[in-house]
Amino acid sequence: MVLKGFCERIVASKCSSKSSTETVDNTQVPAYSKAGSSDSKFPKASLWSSIFTSGFSVVETYSESSTSEKKTVNSRSSGWAAAVRKVVSGGSMRRFHERVLGSSRTDISSSDGDIWLLGVCHKISQNESTGGVDTINGLAAFEQDFSSKILVTYRKGFDAIGDSKYTSDVNWGCMLRSSQMLVAQALLFHRLGRSWRKTVDKPLDKEYIDILQLFGDSEASAFSIHNLLQAGKGYGLAVGSWVGPYAMCRTWEVLARNLREKNDLGEPPLPMAIYVVSGDEDGERGGAPVVCIEDASKRCSEFSRGQAAWTPLLLLVPLVLGLDKVNPRYIPLLHSTFKFPQSLGVMGGKPGASTYIIGVQNEKAFYLDPHDVQPVVNINGETQEPNSTSSYHCSVMRHIPLDSIDPSLAIGFYCRNKDDFDDFCSQASKLAEESNGAPLFTVAESRSFSKQVTSNDVSGDNTGFQEDDFLGTAHANDSVNHEDDWQLL
């Protein structure tokens, strides 16, 4: 009823013009409930999916009408179709998605403590001896750092994806866009360093332009939404369907391998090995994911074709940290991962509305939001003007409570070399020791050692969770299978 009233108000305000003849292409309707999708196992997303798709149901039924019926329906509904399109591409969709994500805010208070943004601490706490100068400088540094991160959003008007007629990913591509942002930051750190900032009065760095080109919206761009969907078919990715974090991580693994094999001689578009960190037997038996040093070394060796003992490494750690919400015991641990120098942030948000979380301030989670709809832009090697890439950045610093994000998420880390990886393992091990028996993930030298630890410490329960991990849910229903919750990965 809320959505009905929402749409009726839009129709009343938008359909008064008789000159509107714009129609909606029914092939652009999201297919959240598409049969056979591996992410149908995410029941939490189905509610939002039904809300999003219900607004398009009138348009969707047109394809089942006869030609004469279509003419009649279209003549009476052109105003409605135009209104729906304006909702999708205009500010109304932004407000609608913010309602889904919850109340996002842009205010920043120095009384809330310092801000950690992908491994960098921005000190904005009040300092009486400096009269607030440190706070002002800290905020300015944070704003510059935040706005230099690459933003990838919904786009409209790109070449159709595969055999479909989809020329936009509005309302279904947010997880793909979130993952693109995470990988884009890894490439920025690799090629330009963590201290790089986007300039406003100087020619753009060639390496920066090259990175943006990789995320263009066409098959010619290595990491386009087109190529991600093709690579992820084995994990249930489909045009028009929402996808979960685990499938997204595995898709990047497949895409990187395919591009590596295709580009046998030159440098691959992703100049780093990918290691998707999983639990025992690749997550088949559940359990907290294990960063296996032996496996990481193997990934590097495979990437270099045996030519190097170690290479740059992108670690992706998909997690499920509860049922309907993140278990409170994991919040401090999740917060601490943003302090790792190797931090690439989190792909996560709310069910059906993924974001890219890049920073924290106490209980706040700062994020880049892919839900703005922007037209396709053509980034090429001739691009020099700073403003030409403005749609890939955002200066609006939105935040939501960290404990309100969806428990199904994925954390990313970038390790430049072996020393960097060793430092990551050291910090991760320390964090696991401070977890009181419920770590986000653990570190082990070899796979066999991790199995031994699991057997000794968990006493036969291979879920990696304690009895009360799900906020009392297991106590209310003894038939709850904790292992199945990890199978959501």
Write the layout of secondary structure elements.
Blueprint: H1 2-14, H2 43-54, H3 57-60, H4 67-89, H5 91-101, E1 115-117, E2 120-122, H6 133-148, E3 154-156, H7 174-192, H8 206-214, H9 225-231, H10 245-262, E4 273-276, E5 290-292, H11 293-303, E6 313-320, H12 331-337, E7 343-350, E8 353-361, E9 364-368, E10 373-375, E11 398-401, E12 408-415, H13 418-433, E13 442-444, H14 447-458, H15 473-476, H16 482-487
Parallel strand pairs: 3-10, 4-6, 5-13
Antiparallel strand pairs: 1-2, 1-8, 6-12, 7-8, 7-12, 8-9, 9-11
Shape: globular
Kindly state the mean pLDDT as a whole number? 76
By DSSP, the count of extended strands is 13
Q: What's the helix count?
A: 16
Could you describe the 3D structure shown?
The protein has 489 residues and is an alpha+beta fold. 38% of the residues lie in helices and 13% in strands. The strands form three sheets. Strands 1, 2, 4, 6, 7, 8, 9, 11 and 12 form a nine-stranded mixed beta sheet that branches. A two-stranded parallel sheet has the order 3-10. Helix 1 (2-14) crosses helix 4, helix 4 (67-89) packs across helix 5 and helix 9 (225-231) packs across helix 10 (245-262). The protein is globular, with a radius of gyration of 23 Å. The two termini are 33 Å apart.
